[in-house]
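Q: I'm writing up a methods section and want to include an example of the input and output format. Could you take the sequence below and give the corresponding predicted structure tokens, formatted cleanly so I can copy it straight into the document?
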Amino acid sequence: MGATGTSTGGNAAAATGGQGGTATAAATTGGAGNGGVGNGAVGGAGGAGGSISVSAGTFDLSNAMTGTAQSAAGILAIVQNTGIGALAQQSVNVQANLSLGK
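A: Here is the clean output for your methods example:
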């Protein structure tokens, strides 16, 4: 038979961390601040609207023609338009009988 042996583990050494260093801060002066970029001001409110007044006029449907043909001589064509029918068509026909050379 071969030789036999026993072994035992060693003891672990306990380690402690070192102390932290100390820091001292020197007093410093802050830098100068820069001003912001300026923008234009907001415009004012618009003015109130003006007033408007309209009129449709007056509509007169009377059928009077005073003194219309009092100084007419020759051929006379009279038309009256009341405004409802805006188109008035006129026609004048003349038949003349002439005898020449007698």
